[in-house]
Design brief:
Blueprint (H helix, E strand, L loop, with lengths): L1 E5 L8 H17 L4 E7 L14 E6 L4 H13 L6 E5 L9 E6 L3 H4 L6 H7 L1 H6 L4 E4 L2 H9 L9 E3 L16 H11 L5 E5 L8 H7 L9 E5 L9 H7 L6 E5 L3 H10 L2 E4 L8 H8 L4 E4 L4 H5 L3 E4 L4 H13 L1 H15 L4 H17 L1
Parallel strand pairs: 1-2, 1-4, 2-3, 4-5, 5-6, 6-7, 8-9, 8-11, 9-10, 11-12, 12-13
Length: 370
């Protein structure tokens, strides 16, 4: 087969999408010597080194100023000469092409929870449903999103739906796998306390940062701190001001964006990972925490129970006292903590990028044969 993969987010894209693209391409590079793989990249990164070179891998650089316009109007023309059998697109697939199309829909939160999006964003995403109904296949990242795709009628034939779970990189490990020197270096670099609660992700309303902060006042251990890692997103309150207003200046550490090289070590140092988001399509950070040997307190909503399974400790994200109660459980019960760490490590092994890549390639084959 000749398979095209829309990888315009490889060098620069939304955080979760970039993680998915990078890991899938790495695995496809390692396991596939039979198919011709055409990797579609953003032309503004043409001078950047692309690390996966092999005779069956071809690179195609295109304009990617607006993903929707690039996918719908430009790529069918650019790709026509390569005589592809199938091409995988991110979010938007062209309605007309000389090859079969698969659209990768990571979530449809703009539809299920429009209040978390600007009017401009909602208008931008609105063609997704029309385009998805005209594709040959739809891939999504969880059964939860698959059910929402059905609910909002994004698909006119359920046989063309496929769930391909995200995986977990083997760089996420418990802290006993790191040297004492590495651990101490990261502690010093970011002024991390010995014990802390951790959140990693974008800082926006949907991630429910406010309830997480308020819950600190109900936690019995008044010495434990909260470490927040991530970039500010739209519709976010003034975080430093809110921390001051809540009387939490000495209990909250804002680290901003953290590089991948440091982040996996920070994960391993946390006492508990807290992810009380209102809505998720998948939820990679809790999975990364489980692989790092850290118990997770997560929302009892959306896809998080599907991802964390019996390793998660679930709370009502709308109730800061319940969030605190679940955190207290882990802080005060060593047996529960050890049980959840052990269960979490086992659970994280169920999510493997190698399996994800194989499932995606198999789906391409099925679409081409259908």
């Amino acid at each position: 087969m000749k398979i095209g993969i829309d990888a315009k987010w490889y060098f620069d894209g939304n955080p979760s999408g970039k993680v998915v693209i990078r890991n899938l391409i790495k695995e496809i590079y390692e396991i596939d010597d039979q198919n011709e793989i055409f990797i579609i990249l953003d032309k503004k990164f043409k001078e950047e080194h692309f690390p996966f070179e092999k005779s069956n891998i071809k690179l195609i650089y295109v304009w990617s100023g607006v993903n929707l316009l690039s996918n719908v109007f430009l790529l069918p023309i650019v790709l026509a000469k390569y005589k592809l059998d199938v091409c995988i697109f991110q979010y938007f697939a062209p309605p007309i092409s000389n090859f079969k199309t698969i659209v990768y829909i990571h979530d449809i939160i703009f539809k299920t929870h429009p209040k978390y999006f600007t009017l401009k964003e909602r208008i931008y995403f609105s063609p997704m449903k029309f385009l998805a109904r005209r594709t040959d296949g739809i891939v999504t990242v969880s059964k939860y999103v698959l059910d929402r795709i059905k609910q909002f009628n994004f698909c006119n034939n359920e046989t063309k739906l496929m769930v391909v779970y995200n995986g977990i990189s083997n760089k996420y490990m418990p802290k006993n796998f790191y040297s004492v020197e590495n651990l101490e270096q990261i502690k010093m670099k970011y002024s991390l306390p010995e014990r802390f609660l951790l959140y990693v992700g974008r800082l926006n309303e949907r991630k429910n940062i406010l309830s997480l902060l308020v819950s600190l006042n109900y936690i019995e251990d008044k010495s434990i701190k909260m470490v927040l890692c991530g970039k500010y997103d739209w519709k976010m309150f003034n975080l430093p001001e809110k921390i001051k207003e809540l009387g939490l200046i000495d209990r909250v550490l804002l680290l901003g964006y953290i590089s991948d090289e440091d982040l996996h070590i920070i994960y391993s140092l946390a006492s508990i990972f807290c992810y009380v988001s209102f809505e998720e399509g998948f939820g990679l950070p809790p999975l990364e925490s489980l692989a790092s040997g850290v118990p997770v307190v997560v929302s009892n909503t959306s896809s998080l129970s599907e991802v964390c399974g019996d390793a998660g400790i679930y709370c009502n994200p709308y109730n800061p006292q319940d969030i605190a109660e679940k955190i207290n459980l882990v802080l005060l019960d060593d047996k529960l903590r050890e049980k959840k760490i052990k269960t979490g490590l086992k659970r994280s092994k169920d999510f493997n990028w190698n399996h994800s890549a194989k499932a995606l390639l198999l789906f391409c084959e099925q679409i081409c044969e259908s």
